[in-house]
């Protein structure tokens, strides 16, 4: 009972953060960039995120029911905040370098969440592993786009006013 | 010791979400809108948010150390995700109506976090009260801007591409 309530709240947090991925989605600007060979096709992003959201929510709900979960819960909140920020910065502001800073912090946050969870529930930790792998790919993609589009990265358009 | 570690992680989550408030800040578009009489001056926003972030982090850290904190921790994560989303939608996409939907969900999330915290630590619950009041003002501001700028709200500019 408590598990499903926790699952629903954590899933809602994921979907809340995911709103930005839908609103600031790959468009003409992104399509016009040079991209590394391992770039996933556009359709893979929403599909993968939905699977990851379910894993993240299950992991959060499992750990939410255990005592001594403070650090894991705090890192869970940290990673979802940064998760919400990447799309607006990368696709919205078209700021490749700032996107790199945010995806790096997100990567670290996901790693810390996974490690903190693993210590009190290894299944929850394992459920964060696909997420860590995906953010690793996202970070490599961001880095690759930066390397292959130096001029664009150096001159992001002015912020919306 | 654990308290301060938790405090730092929760504060980092707040600052991570707050990045969007700095990047998608009030600009010429916002200044050109008709605003309700109770609109706070621009400088009040970052000042208030910093105070609220500290309150939110202290509340999170206090509850993070207690057992039976699952629901409160899940709602804490939910509200910070939505907190990160409002600025990009309102100031970035200039979408007043979608901003209203998000600030309403945020308001509900903050209320639920406060109530869930209050049940296990009334001081933590109390620390969320100023946040709830501020989000109430923000929601009223969003609603007022909508009412006073019907044409702008009806025709948000196309999303960045």
From TrEMBL, chains A, B:
TM segments? 43-61, 99-118, 125-146
Annotated family: Belongs to the TspO/BZRP family.
Superkingdom, taxonomy of origin: Bacteria
Q: Which Pfam families match?
A: TspO_MBR (PF03073)
Record's keyword annotation contains Membrane: yes
Q: Which InterPro entries match?
A: TspO/MBR-related_sf (IPR038330), TspO_MBR (IPR004307)
Location of this chain's protein in the cell: Membrane
- Name by which UniProt lists this protein: Tryptophan-rich sensory protein
Topology within the bilayer: Multi-pass membrane protein
Q: Does the keyword Transport apply?
A: no
Major subcellular site: membrane
Q: Which keywords, in A-to-Z order, does the entry hold? A: Membrane, Transmembrane, Transmembrane helix
